[in-house]
Amino acid sequence: MKIPCLDKTGKEDIVVADAIFNRAFNEPLIHQLVNSYLANARSGTRAQKGRSDVSGSTRKQWRQKGTGRARTGSAANPIWRGGGKIFPNKPNENFSHKINRKMYRAGICSILSQLVRDERLKVSNEFMVTRPKTSDLARKLDQYGISNAMIITDEFDNNLYLASRNMSGVRVFDLSHMDPVSLLQYNDIIFTREAISKIEGLLL
Predict the structure, then answer these.
(1) N- to C-terminal Cα separation, the chain
(2) What is the DSSP letter of 22?
(3) Smallest Cα–Cα separation from 30: which of 118, 105, 117?
(4) Phi then psi for 5, rounded to 5 degrees?
(5) pLDDT in tens, 115-126
(6) Of 18, 20, 56, 162, which one has the greatest count of Cβ atoms within 10 A?
(7) DSSP per-residue letters across 122-189
(8) Taking a C-beta distance cutoff of 8 angstroms, is the pair 194, 153 a contact?
(9) C-alpha torsion angle, residues 173, 178, 183, 188 (rounded to 10)
(10) Is residue 91 exposed (0-12), middle (13-18) or buried (19+ Cβ within 10 Å)?
């Protein structure tokens, strides 16, 4: 299939592989892919104190028999105020979800195909700025009528990265850092021609 070129000077369409950019939308797979990505990003640093972690005396509060009250042990009892949690969260908790390589590739292809159908995926012959200036990048995006976009290059472009840091609706990634959540988050996804060529080699 063919994707129109974003550049005004490049009138020719860009030929892409149907196996990547013309797949059916697989919503359950994409849902699993997004959940896995977000879960794997969790740091797992939350922690709560169990009864052995609560500070204070460990003595028995009153004798076992003869008081008329229910028997009890230390003040760290979970049913007492200030006591420990019964099943505390631990900082070494593992939230990761495994996604097979074939499933990941199929999910990315499904997302890219839907972006093409929605006309949200753009391809540029050469998307770059000569200086690391936000005004230059903003002016370039205004020419295309784009305000919220993710720009994906084949290699890290320092000028583009520095120019985009102060723009709330624009992010720049190289191809190795492309992720499914960002692909769905932005209104427009701009690939350079070199990035499109490389992604076909990675996903086929």
Answers:
(1) 15
(2) S
(3) 105
(4) -80, 140
(5) 999 999 999 988
(6) 20
(7) EEES----SSS-HHHHHHHHHHHT-SSEEEEESS--HHHHHHHTT-TTEEEEEGGG--HHHHHHSSEE
(8) yes
(9) 30
(10) exposed
Q: What is the pLDDT of residues 49-103, one digit of tens each?
A: 999 999 988 899 999 999 999 999 999 999 999 999 999 998 888 889 999 999 9
Residue indicated by tokens 């769905």 = 184
DSSP 8-class letter at 13: P
- The 3-state DSSP composition of the chain as helix, strand, coil percent (nearest 5) reads 35, 10, 50
Report the distance separating Cα 174 and Cα 92, nearest Å: 31
What is the spatial distance between Cα 183 and Cα 198, in angstroms, rounded to a whole number? Answer: 17
Burial class for 204, CB neighbours closer than 10 Å (0-12, 13-18, 19+)? exposed
Phi, psi for 85 (deg, rounded to 5): -75, 150
- What does the pLDDT read at residue 5? 86
Give the bridge partners for 122, in sequence order: 190
Residue 9 has pLDDT above 70, yes or no: no
Contact 120, 150 (CB under 8 A): no
Q: Give 75-79 contacts, CB < 8 A, sequence gap 24+.
A: 76/51, 76/52, 77/51, 78/51
